[in-house]
Design goal:
By secondary structure, the protein is an alpha+beta fold. The protein has one domain (3-79). Helix content is 39%, strand content 29%. It contains three helices and five strands. The chain has a five-stranded antiparallel beta sheet with strand order 1-2-3-4-5. Strand 3 (23-28) and strand 4 (32-36) form a beta hairpin. The radius of gyration is 12 Å and the shape is globular. This is DUF4160 domain-containing protein. It comes from Thalassobaculum fulvum. InterPro entries: DUF4160. Pfam families: DUF4160.
């Protein structure tokens, strides 16, 4: 599970054998959410986790193109 970004106690991860739609795992010591890259929609996680990881979710939206490129690179490599 490559970490593609790390900042102030949270990290953004993309799992190699993950399912569509392209998404990231936003993880801190106490919280986890899964968010769709293209829209920032939270696919999995509690309301408390979403509030705690709001900064990381904003980062995802600002870096969508980079994250989609990483998703394609990581998932494509695993499909070979």
């Amino acid at each position: 599970m490559p970490t593609v970004h790390r900042q102030q106690g949270w990290k953004v991860q993309i799992f190699a054998n993950d399912h569509a739609p392209p998404h990231v795992h936003l993880v801190s010591a106490e919280h986890k959410i899964v968010a769709e890259i293209a829209t920032g929609q939270v696919l999995k996680g509690s309301e408390a986790s979403v509030r705690a990881l709001a900064e990381s979710l904003a980062w995802v939206l600002e870096n969508r193109s980079r994250l989609l490129a990483e998703w394609n690179r990581i998932v494509e490599r695993e499909d070979d």
